[in-house]
Design brief:
alpha+beta, Ribosomal Protein L22, Chain A, 5 strands, elongated
Amino acid sequence: MTDKTVASTGVKAVAKGVRMSPRKVGVVAALVRGRSVADALVILEHTPRRAADPVRKAIESARANADHNHNYKADTLQIVSIQVSPGPRFKRYRPAAHGRALPFQRRTSHIRVVVDGEKRAPKKPVTKKEEAK
């Protein structure tokens, strides 16, 4: 998917190459789509699925990016979009009867999270005159 499919507003975080099927990760991502970041993290902590951990980490990364790099208030952040797309597949073989080898694929996922919220007032730079006071 291209970046043009998602609104350009907000702050994003991408987790690439997650070693889980996109179908399984997508089920967990659907649980938190459109919610606040705080609600989503509580939901994911209590979700008994293996895919909840990488989704939670991607959301926490987006929250940290918004707070540290873009000066957003952490308590006002909402999940604008969360997308799960397939990553590269690892081709493997499984032993079978009569000396055969049956092929299978280990699927991977890319998780893309976009959050948006209210910005903090920018900090006023301290001048040397104010510093001396």
